[in-house]
Write a structure and sequence with these properties.
Layout (H helix, E strand, L loop, with lengths): L1 H104 L3 H49 L12 E3 L4 H7 L4 H10 L2 E3 L6 E5 L3 H17 L4 H30 L6 H9 L4 E2 L2 E2 H18 L4 H10 L14 H11 L4 H8 L11 H14 L8 H16 L4 E7 L4 E6 L6 H18 L7 E6 L9
Parallel strand pairs: 7-8
Antiparallel strand pairs: 1-3, 2-3, 4-5, 6-7
Length: 477
């Protein structure tokens, strides 16, 4: 029993010792943590003190800078006041000087300014006019020379045909007996032919000939070919006439399209609308003043391409506009529009480019030119139509035009004689030296040209030359 108590006491003491050791160890660890935390707090406090010192220093610097800025502002305000005072003094001195100048010169400021502006304006006008005249004279000399060179080279490089093909309107037969077969019993054959082709067949006393009359050359060509087949075949009756005419109409339509395609291929024109190709082919059967329209269009297209190349423009686009410039003469219907404007509308309808459409519409000055190709097409159209051998006129109309030219010039006072020469391309006017002086000759030439241009219609241009001379005649006996 006693031993158990002793053991329990010893165990108790051991436990107390162990507990004390644990307590001391935990106390030591806690004190260590507290010490570390105090060190961190001291470091943080030290950093805060340093930051506070820096902030205080910045405040002092900012205050000092604000004071400096305020001093500078005060100084600037003082300087501004001084400048304003000086400006007022300067204005007063300037006003006194102006008043003194006005008293001495007798002119106000506005009057002096206006006189100076007028003198400078007159001087500038004089200098500018002299410069403009000089530049214009030089430009005219250079432009005339260059334009003549381009036009001459263009005409020389393009081959033209003097013999012009026309639509045939007279159908020749071997003998007059064939006329009766063509007319038919009670005229039924000729009526059937006229109804199928839309033309008028004139059978008269002209030996071995029948006249085919129509405003449409395509219809005349269909009638001519159909009549040719009927005469060769020998079977002439209304049913056969209608069958042959329909067949020939299809052949002519195919030939028109083939002609248009071949023309485009020859000229190197691609992407043309099929309807425009057909219109190009129809040009083969139309003529203007005796000049075949397709030949004229091809010639104009080549001239446009060469001239555009000389001027550094697009030759393909110029050739395209030159070929299409007269398509307004071959529409399927006949609207009341000039052919240039109608051609422009057709080109716009079939999606041609705007500058090509404008060149077509402006080649007779019926709309404003907006592209550089337009004047080229106009010039080449005139070159093709005005060259010798291009167009033919009826003799009576030709003589009447020459007489009209001479009569227009004779209406003016002082004109003694007039002569239309060069096939009506030039008009020479002889005036009296005692009635008109040298200055009036220039005015007379201009007036005659203006009146001819307003009252007459003619291809190309007419040159008016007024001649004034003084002659002294004596005889030695």
């Amino acid at each position: 029993m006693h031993k158990a108590e002793v053991d329990a006491e010893a165990l108790k003491k051991d436990k107390l010792v162990e507990i004390r050791e644990k307590y001391l160890a935990q106390k030591e660890a806690y004190e260590k943590q507290v010490q570390q935390r105090n060190q961190k707090l001291q470091q943080t406090e030290s950093r805060l003190q340093q930051r506070e010192q820096a902030i205080n220093q910045q405040k002092e610097d900012l205050s000092r800078k604000n004071q400096e800025i305020e001093n500078v502002r005060n100084e600037l305000s003082r300087q501004r006041e001084i400048i304003e005072h000086k400006q007022k003094e300067l204005d007063q001195i300037t006003e006194k000087q102006q008043q003194l100048l006005e008293q001495v010169s007798g002119l106000s400021v506005e009057d002096a300014k206006n006189q100076l502006i007028e003198s400078l304006r007159d001087q500038a006008k004089t200098d500018a006019m002299a410069y403009v005249n000089e530049v214009m004279d030089e430009a005219k000399m250079t432009a005339n020379k260059e334009a003549k060179r381009i036009v001459v080279q263009t005409i020389q490089r393009v081959a033209t045909e003097a013999a012009i093909e026309n639509s045939v309107t007279v159908f020749h037969i071997e003998n007059d007996e064939m006329k009766g077969r063509i007319i038919g019993r009670e005229g039924r054959n000729i009526r059937a032919l006229e109804a199928a082709t839309g033309i008028e067949v004139i059978v008269d006393d002209t030996p071995e000939a029948i006249v085919l009359s129509s405003f449409d050359p395509v219809r005349r060509e269909i009638a001519r070919l159909a009549l040719h087949q009927l005469v060769n075949d020998g079977r002439i009756h209304p049913a056969r006439i209608e069958e042959v005419v329909n067949k020939v109409r299809k052949q002519v339509e195919e030939e028109i399209i083939e002609t248009g395609k071949r023309t485009c291929i020859d000229l190197g024109i691609n992407g043309l609308h099929p309807e425009l190709v057909r219109m190009v082919g129809k040009m083969k059967y139309r003529s203007s003043y005796g000049q075949n329209l397709l030949q004229h269009a091809r010639e104009t297209a080549n001239l446009c391409a060469v001239m555009a190349s000389e001027l550094g423009l697009n030759p393909k686009k110029a050739r395209r506009a030159g070929l299409l410039h007269d398509i307004g003469k071959v529409p399927d219907d006949e609207p009341e529009l000039p052919h240039a404007l109608l051609g422009m509308k057709l080109a716009e309808k079939y999606k041609e480019k705007p500058d090509v459409c404008n060149a077509i519409g402006a080649h007779h000055d019926e709309t404003e030119m907006t592209s550089l190709i337009a004047p080229i097409v106009q010039a080449c159209d005139a070159i093709s139509g005005a060259r010798p051998g291009a167009r033919r006129e009826v003799v009576e109309a030709y003589i009447k035009r020459l007489n009209d030219l001479e009569q227009i010039a004779l209406q003016y006072p002082g004109v003694i004689k007039t002569y239309a020469i060069q096939a009506g391309r030039e008009l020479r006017v002889i005036v009296g030296a005692d009635k008109i002086d040298d200055k009036d000759t220039e005015r007379l030439s201009y007036d005659i040209a203006k009146k001819i241009q307003d009252e007459m219609t003619y291809p190309g241009q007419v040159k008016i030359t007024v001649i004034r001379e003084t002659r002294a005649v004596s005889y030695a006996k």
